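Onboarding guide, step 5: your first structure request.
Type a short instruction followed by the sequence, for example:

Predict the 3D structure of this protein.
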Amino acid sequence: MDGRLIDHPEFQDSTQSWRLGAVIFTLRALGWPVETIEVPSPTEHSPDRVIALYRLDGKYTAQALAMNGGAA
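The system replies with structure tokens like these:
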């Protein structure tokens, strides 16, 4: 919610959940403009590997907090 990029390992460390894809799907279904940035991340076994980083612009933080009954 602060505009940072997040990847799967960071999400899992922060939430103890591996369901980042489901969260992104839900946010988009609710109309949130989650950005996807694809980054090459080759490995020895997968030289064409690409990972996704996700970002929600920080300007949406106040809106999300208001919808959740919080204060910005």
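Each response can be followed by summary notes, for example: The chain is about 35% helix and 15% strand.
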